[in-house]
């Protein structure tokens, strides 16, 4: 994929799940450097590749971001992958969990976009790739706080896309359905591996698609929503009442 050749990429939450798979896949495409950021060094896998520069970064911590920026001012592609999920309904879910999802998924990603936009403008043409969720289209009641945080992030992604378009920065929204990562531990759904999804995400970016649904479960949900938003709401309502 030419689009990634010789590019400098920063990815959040690179130690596991989709983030780790994105690093592995990007390394196969002649990238120049990947800043692979993590919260806990002990959880950081070795990618056995000198192009990977591991850096500590919690996206909710502004001093972490300020420190990281100093060493990563050549970033050309920012992948906002880090995310958390708290279960629970609106009426009975833990409010602390809902607040945490919002702090990480929405405000944390906004922190990163605000901090890195000047750098990306300087290094343009550049890209921001936000990993959102299909739950941004229609809420799933069992993970209502998470869905709200991702709906907010989807909205912010669409806004910033317009804000940055004239400055040479392309903003992509990736809205997966269900992927076989720790986030879905315990689920009995048959889900694609993060490695297979990472390939599909990067292929869609290479095609310059702005809104990307990289998996079949997500695509089926999106198709239902496109036909009529109430159809996706019904799918999620049925899941809730199973
Ligand atoms: N799996 C799915 O079905 C699915 C579907 C739609 C969207 N997504 C989205 O895809 C992204 C990746 O999820 P995943 O499935 O790969 O989940 P995962 O395996 O649970 O990985 C989440 C990653 O985010 C990191 N992280 C969490 N909070 C962070 C913070 N404050 N600062 C920096 N890093 C932080 C985690 O770091 P630690 O290891 O330190 O916790 C971990 O590396 C998330 O945004 C998620 O919402 C996933």
Give the termini distance in whole angstroms. 42 Å
State Rg: 17 Å
Any idea what the shape is?
globular
By CATH, the architecture is named 3-Layer(aba) Sandwich
Largest sheet: 7 strands, parallel
List each distinct ligand once.
NADP nicotinamide-adenine-dinucleotide phosphate
Q: How many E-type strands?
A: 7
Q: What top-tier CATH class fits best?
A: Alpha Beta
Written as H for each helix and E for each strand, in order along the chain, the element string is: EHEEHEHEHEHEHH
Query: If strands are numbered along the chain, what order do they take across the biggest sheet?
Result: 3-2-1-4-5-6-7
Helix tally? 7
Q: In percent, how helical is the residue content?
A: 40-55%
CATH topology: Rossmann fold
* Whole-number total of structural domains: 1
The CATH H-level homologous superfamily: NAD(P)-binding Rossmann-like Domain
Please state the structural category: alpha/beta
* Overall average pLDDT: 96
Instruction: Indicate the low-confidence ranges by residue numbers.
Output: none
In short:
With 242 residues, the protein is α/β, with parallel strands linked by helices. It has helices spanning 17-27, 62-71, 95-122, 144-165, 194-206, 216-227, 229-240; strands at residues 8-11, 33-38, 52-56, 77-80, 126-131, 169-174, 211-212.
